[in-house]
Write a structure and sequence with these properties.
The protein is α/β, with parallel strands linked by helices. The protein contains 16 helices and 13 strands. Helix 6 (174-181) links the parallel strand 2 and strand 3 (185-190). The longest helix is centred in the last third of the chain and has 25 residues, at 444-468. It comes from Streptomyces cremeus.
């Protein structure tokens, strides 16, 4: 899926393995320690774990028997596993509750395309493992929704297009295999922007011919943003504990921000892209989305498996000295952290006020916040889209060769030109046509442009962080959600995701506040393979901002807002 001058998407490529970085946390502790759960997994069966405090139940939750005392809007994976360890909750009970919510709530938002008929069978197997004390990990029995451009055996996996809606894939994408190995319950597939927003010049985010239009749960006539629109909206509506999104530039983080949830775009290559409909192997990555950072961190641990890496580079970078950590001192919470604030006033006064308030809260918690403007942004915008066109032609041809349906991009383009159902919101296939005409990735002009693009994106982050001794750069993730309009479509005006997306560096969106009813996220970005450090920081930021609130499913807002003029897409 894409946000700025390009549509952003998914993940692609496949995998050597990284070496463990010295001092890196194990999968069991990861960033969870930031939320006082560092010893949670190792003590799962212990009595202390089962006594963790749980949020108060909502009326809907309390009616569900096993879920009495659990609010699905706010409960975390560690809290659910505490219940399962004590016998107060079963994976089957949790799965039934989410299936019931999908049936009751999804008709308002159209975020879930289909549920997996085997979900309760998967949950029953997890029940048995919990009874035997043979739990596979923190995700065992946890319901997960998968974006519909990720191959899932036995389920149609269409990228939102009728061209791929004839048969389910014969095997799972690598990331789905890892989720199954971790014991997760594959609950179903989420709607997305068709072809991850890489089909038409003026698409409408959240629309696909297969699933129609996904709506923002906060205000139903507002857009959910980006190609992972269904994953973000489903989480906002608490239709699963976790969802998987994909991003080329903005398609995890913008739906997270605009739907008031958390989304991680990992370092390029840490999550395998085999079996994910591609835009560009140079930028695509799948990543976890959830309603809190701890659930994102635990899912990220499962997705990266035993250290598979795809794309360029097989080993993590050496630990980067940043902030006060450079001197070896210990940081506690936000104290001693250094954050660079990239304001992006083009997103509007209301968003800027949220950024100012967030910066003040972080300063009050002991962080140093300095204003920064990462360089080279105009040049990145100029170079990114042409490079993605060449890469999409190469990568989509390779993907289609292994799927039933159109055999290459030329056939795919002809299919979309001819099928009326593919034109019910917008008719264009301009990006397909441009990709067909783009220079091949063997062309020296393309190679030079991609090399410059990657180099400048990395320098924009690395140089800024080094100059100010930063732990992370922060920026607004999104403007308030614009009204959805097929005739108008989306424009590309949200630049904050681009540096990390093009560099292949991690970025994390956490809720920062709201403009009226409409959520705005804070985007944190850092250096290559700093995913764990970023998640740890994000957990502290989330704790300080406490910006999440449940959606009210309002049909509309009484008056237009300035955000209606700020439109964007994500790929």
């Amino acid at each position: 899926m894409r946000l700025l001058t390009v549509r952003k998407s998914t993940d692609s490529s496949s995998a050597p393995r990284p070496t463990a970085r010295p001092g890196a946390r194990t999968a069991a502790t990861l960033v969870v320690s930031a939320l006082l759960v560092s010893s949670w997994w190792t003590s799962l069966a212990g009595p202390g774990h089962a006594s963790e405090a749980l949020p108060a139940a909502s009326p809907a939750s309390a009616a569900d028997g096993e879920l009495r005392g659990i609010d699905l809007n706010t409960v975390t994976i560690p809290q659910l596993q505490a219940r399962m360890a004590s016998g107060a909750l079963t994976p089957s009970g949790l799965t039934r509750a989410y299936l019931k919510r999908i049936k009751a709530i999804d008709p308002k938002i159209h975020a879930v395309l289909r549920t997996d008929r085997t979900a309760l069978q998967q949950a029953a197997r997890s029940d048995a493992r919990h009874r035997r004390g043979a739990v596979l990990g923190p995700l065992d029995g946890i319901p997960v929704l998968i974006k519909d451009n990720v191959d899932t055996k036995g389920l149609l996996s269409t990228a939102g297009s009728l061209a791929l809606a004839t048969a389910a894939p014969h095997q799972d994408a690598d990331l789905v295999t890892r989720l199954r190995e971790a014991g997760a319950v594959i609950l179903g597939k989420t709607n997305l922007s068709e072809w991850a927003n890489f089909r038409a010049a003026r698409p409408t985010s959240g629309w696909s011919a297969v699933g129609g239009q996904t709506h923002n749960p906060y205000v139903l006539d507002r857009n959910p943003c980006g190609s992972s629109a269904g994953s973000g909206a489903a989480l906002a509506a608490s239709l699963a504990q976790v969802a998987i999104g994909t991003e080329t530039d903005g398609s995890i983080v913008c739906p997270a921000g605009m739907n008031g949830v958390v989304g991680l775009k990992p370092t390029l290559g840490v999550v395998s892209g085999r079996g994910v409909v591609p835009i560009s192997a140079e930028q695509d990555t799948a990543g976890p989305m959830a309603r809190n950072v701890v659930d994102v961190a635990l899912t990220f641990t499962a997705l990266r498996g035993k250290g598979h890496v795809t794309g360029e580079g097989t080993a993590p970078a050496a630990p980067r000295a940043s902030g006060t950590a450079a001197g070896g001192s210990t940081q506690t919470g936000m104290r001693g952290r250094r954050i660079g604030l990239w304001r992006l006033p083009s997103l509007g006064k209301d968003v800027d006020e949220i950024m100012s308030a967030a910066a003040q809260r972080l300063r009050s918690a002991g962080a140093t916040v300095v204003e920064v403007t990462p360089p080279y942004q105009d040049r990145l915008a100029e170079l990114e889209f042409p490079a993605l066109l060449s890469e999409f032609h190469r990568d989509i041809d390779a993907y289609l060769a292994g799927r039933r349906g159109p055999e290459d991009l030329a056939e795919l383009t002809a299919f979309h030109r001819a099928d009326p159902a593919e034109q019910t919101c917008f008719a264009g296939v301009e990006l397909f046509e441009s990709a067909l005409k783009a220079p091949p990735t063997t062309d020296p002009r393309y190679r030079a442009a991609r090399a410059e693009l990657t180099r400048l994106a990395r320098r924009s982050i690395d140089d800024t962080m080094a100059a100010h001794r930063l732990d992370a750069i922060a920026a607004p993730t999104n403007p308030p959600a614009w009204t959805t309009d097929c005739a108008r479509g989306d424009n590309d005006v949200i630049p904050s995701s681009t540096p990390a997306a093009v560099a292949g560096y991690p970025s994390l969106s956490v809720p920062a506040g709201s403009v009226g009813e409409l959520p705005v996220g804070l985007l944190l970005m850092s250096g290559k393979h700093e995913d764990e450090a970023l998640l740890s920081l994000g957990a502290h930021v989330e704790q300080r901002l406490r910006a999440w609130r449940a959606p009210r499913y309002l049909p509309t807002l009484p008056t237009p807002t300035a955000s209606d003029e700020l439109r964007g897409t994500g790929r």
